[in-house]
User: Fold this.
Amino acid sequence: MKKKVDAVIIGAGPAGMAAAVSLRENGIKNILLVDREPVAGGILQQCIHNGFGVHHFKEELTGPEYAERYIEQINKNKIDLWLDSCVIDIENNSKNSKTVVILSKERGISYITAKVVVLAMGCRERNRGNINIPGRRPAGIMTAGTAQKLVNIYGYLPGREVVILGSGDIGLIMARRMTWEGANVKAVIELQSYPGGLNRNIVQCLNDFNIPLYLSHTISNILGNNRIEAVEVSPLDENFEAIKSESFTLKCDTLLLSVGLIPENELSIKIGVKLDPVTRGACVDKNLMTNIPGIFSCGNVLQVHDLVDFVSEEAKNCGASAAKYINGKLEKSEEIPIRKGNLIRYVLPGKIEKGKPALLSLRPINPAENLYLVITTDTGVELFKRKYKNIFPSVMLRINIDIVPDDAEFIEIKFEK
Amino acid sequence: MTNKYDVIIIGAGVIGAAIARELSRYHLDVAVLEKEIDVSFGVSKANSGIIHGGFHAPPDTLKGKLVVPGNRKFDRLCEELDFPFERNGELMVAFSEDEIHTLQFYYDRGKKNNVPYLEIIGKERLLELEPNLNPDVECALYAPSAGVICPYEYCFALIENAKQNEVNVITGEKVIWLEKNGRKFDVKTEKGNKYSARYIVNAAGLFADEIARMVGITNFKIVPRKGEEYLLDRRVGKLVKRVIFPCPTKKSKGMLIIPTVDGPVMVGPTALDIEDKTDFSTTRDGLKTVFNHAQKLVPSIRATDAITSFVGLRPAATSNFSIITKLFSVIKSFAGIKSEYIDGDFILGRTAVSGFINAAGIQSPGLTASPIIAEYISDALLKDGLKLEKNPAFNPTRKRRVKHLRSILEKKDFFEVEKLVKENKKYSNLICRCENVTEAEIVDAIKMGHTTLDGIKFATRAGTGRCQAGFCTTRILDLIHRETGIPVEQITKKGQGSEIVLTPLRKGVV
Ligand SMILES: Cc1cc2nc3c(=O)[nH]c(=O)nc-3n(C[C@H](O)[C@H](O)[C@H](O)COP(=O)(O)OP(=O)(O)OC[C@H]3O[C@@H](n4cnc5c(N)ncnc54)[C@H](O)[C@@H]3O)c2cc1C
Ligand SMILES: Cc1cc2nc3c(=O)[nH]c(=O)nc-3n(C[C@H](O)[C@H](O)[C@H](O)COP(=O)(O)OP(=O)(O)OC[C@H]3O[C@@H](n4cnc5c(N)ncnc54)[C@H](O)[C@@H]3O)c2cc1C
Assistant:
C-alpha cells in the first residue's frame, strides 16, 4: 500500500501518543501513529505498579491507566493508529518528504510518504551480552523488563529463587513484584557505590521486604548448565575489578538484569541522524529536531526518562514544533551551544536560541550533596542558580531558564559549592 | 517399527549428518542417534563457520589431506542443499620480518595441500582489499578459495536431506551401552530403547572416546579445547570482507576476525585445554584476550559492540595409550596418508573391532572437511564389508521452504516482500525485530522439529540480535505452544532442565 500523510510517528508509547495528540491540537490532520506491539502504550502496559502521572494528571495512576488516558485522546481525535506494525526502513527524500516502510500483520507492507517523522521508539534494555558477564550460559537469565512482561502480561513466573544484577528502577520494581508472587529475592547487586534507581523505589521495593542491596559488587561468575544454579558475587576494588578472594555464592534459579536502557536508535542511524555519545539519543535543537530537517525525536529514544510525566511534556513540545515545521512556520533564530561544566553528565538540548527562554533536561555524573546548579553566559550573566541538597544520576533535573541575552556566544552549566 | 539397521551413526553433528546424507545415497537402513533434543547442539553449533582455504594443517596429516577436497565440495553442496555459503577468501597477515617468514612457510604448506590461487600480496593491495586493517600490516597470505557458512544451517540441511532419503534421525536418544553380538552390535539408550546394527559409526564429537571405550577401543582420549567467540552488533558493519588471521605463534593460532555469512562480525576463538566437557563458560580473561588480539588486526573493533558471546569446545584427540593401534588407510585416493594415529589429528575409519568405524577427534577444520570425511567413512564401511548399492531414488536436493525476510530486506527488495505476504500472511507478522524473522519462518522451523528456543534460534536467527530475545521470547513460546501443544512451562531453551518459565500464575493465560 502507498499512502501520503503529514506526519508519521514511530512508536505509540506515551511519547508517540502525546506527540500525535499535540500535532492534532496544532491543526495537523493527516497523522499516522505506528507501533509494533498489539496495543498502544509502550512500556507502560507492563508497569502495573502505581506512581505514574503525579505531575501531569495530579493523581497516582498505574502504567496502563496512564496509557489509557492517552489512548482515549487518540481515539477521540480519530488519529490513525496501526498496531502490530513495525517500521523497518526510513528514507529521507527531501526536506519535506520522507518514506517510511512498514510491515504490518494486517496490512502487509506499506510505503508511507510523510512531511515529518517523529521518532518515539523508546528504549531496549541492556542484556548479558552488552555487559559481558562471564560464566556459563544456562536458561533463567533475562532482563528485568522481560521478567516484568512474563509476570504482568503473560502470567508466568520465571523463577522462585531470584538474584537481581543492577539497581535500576525496573530491577527494583521487579524485586517487589517477584516477592509478591511468592518468589524469594535473595539480593540486588550493584556495580556502583550508589543505587541506580530512585530512592523511593529502594525504600518501597527493597527495604520494605528486607532484600539486601550490595553496592560496589558484581557478578563474577554464573553457574549451572541447563538452568542457572548459582551466581558468584564479588566486591569491587577502585578500578572496578572483582576481588575474587572475597567472593561468595548465592544459589538461585533466576538472574534478572537491570543494567540500563539503550535508546532504540537503529532506524535513526540508518537515515543518518546524529547521536550524542553520552545519551545515545539524537542530537536535537531546541525544537527537538534532529540534524535531519523534518525528523524529530522525543521520549526515551531521545533520553532515558525516569518519569513518564516528563515524557508526555517533552513529546507535546515535540509535536508542536513538528506541526510548525509542516506549516513552514518553524522559524530558527540564532543558536548558541551549551557547555557542560563540573559534574554534568549531559544536558539536552545541546543548543538554545538567543532571545528566548528554554527548558533544559540534565543529569549529574554522580551523587553529591549541597551544591548549587549554576547557568551563566560567557558574558557573565547568571541565568539560573538553585541549591540542591542531594543530586543523583537517577534523578533527571528539568530547568526553565530565562531569556538568553543577544550578545552571548555560549552558555555554561555546572554544579558548584 | 523395527529397531534393526544396517548402520547406526552415533551423533548428529556436522560429521554424523554428513555421513548420514552420504549413506542415504545407497539402499541401506540407517539411523542417527543423538543425545541432545535437537541436532547440531554439540560442537557443531559453536564454531567459527569457516570453510578453510587449507594452508594451516600439515600435509602429512588427515587434516591436511582432507581440507582442500572438503572445501571444493561446498559449491555443489550449497547448490544442492540451499544453505548460505560465501567464498569470501581468507588472509593471514604479517606485521614484521619474522612474520613474513611465517607467511612463506604457510605458503609452501598450502601449496603442498593443493590450495588453489594461493598468493602472498603486498601492503598496498592488502589495504585496498581490506581498508579497515591496521595500517602497520606488511603483507598477507591470501587464499581466495576460503569461505564462510552458517554451521547449524548446514547441519540442519544435511539432516533434512538425509531424512528425505529415508534416514531415521532420533533425537533425545543417548547411547549408554554398546556390545558386539556375533556380527551385529546391540545398542541401548538412556531412555531404555534398544537398537541393533551391523555397523556403528562413532561420530560422537567430544564423547567419541566414551563411545569407543564401550567396545573396548581405548587408544585415544578426547580433550576439550575451549574457544570463546564474541559476536558484534550488525550495526558495526562488515569491517572486513575476508576472514582475517594473524600469524600463528608457538603458543596460539591467534584470534580471527570473521565476517559471518549472516552479516555480523565475530571475533575469536581463544584456545585453552580444559577437562570438563560441559564447561561452556566465558571468562574475563577470554574477553580481554579476544579483543586485545582483534584490535591489533582491526583497530576499530570495540568490546562494547559485542552483543553476545559463546564457547565452543574442540574435540581434540590425544593418545593416552602407549600402543597405538593401526588405523587402516582404506582407499586408493587416500593412499599416502600415514596409517598411524597422530596426536591432534582426525581419527577416521576402521578399527580393531570390525564393523565399528570411527569419525572422532574432528576438530578444526572438521566443518570444512565434513563432506569428504563422509565419503571417507562410506569407503571404510565398504572395505569393512558393507554392500553399497546405489539408490536410484536418491534425491540430492533439499530446498528451504521459507525465505528469510531479513535477506530480502537487506536488498531492499520490498516487492519481493509484498509477493511473499500475498502467498503467506505469516510473513507480515514480525516475531524477532532485531533480525527481522517472521512467523512464517518460525512456524516452519517448529514444523521441522525445532521446538526449543535454541533450536529455533539456530534455524531462524530469532533471538540472536542486539536485544537478545527480549522482544521475541514470549512470542516464540506462544508459537511453539500453538503449533505443538507443549505447555508453555515445559518449553525449554535447550532440552530438559532448561525450562524458560515455571508455573502459570493465573489460569487461562495464553
Ligand atoms: C519498568 C519501568 C518502570 C517505570 N516506572 C515509572 C513510574 O513509576 N513512574 C513514571 O512516571 N515513569 C516510570 N517509568 C518511565 C516511563 O514509563 C518511560 O519513561 C516511558 O514509558 C517512555 O515512553 P516512550 O514512549 O518514550 O517509550 P516506550 O514506552 O518504550 O514506547 C516506545 C514504543 O515504540 C514502539 N516501537 C519501537 N520501535 C518501533 C518500530 N520500529 N516500529 C513500530 N513501533 C516501534 C515500541 O513498541 C513501544 O511501544 C518506568 C519505566 C519502566 C521501563
Ligand atoms: C571454537 C571452534 C571453532 C571452530 N571453527 C571451525 C572453522 O572455522 N572451520 C572448520 O572447518 N571447523 C571449525 N571447528 C571445528 C568444527 O566445529 C568441528 O570439527 C565439527 O563441528 C565437529 O563435528 P562433530 O559432528 O564431530 O561433533 P559434534 O557437533 O559435537 O557432534 C557430535 C554429536 O554427538 C552427540 N553425542 C555425544 N555422545 C552421544 C551419545 N552417547 N549418544 C548419542 N549422541 C551422542 C553429541 O550430542 C553431538 O551432537 C571449530 C571448532 C570450535 C570448537
In short: Chain B touches chain A through 60 residues (CB under 8 Å). Chain B has a mean pLDDT of 92.
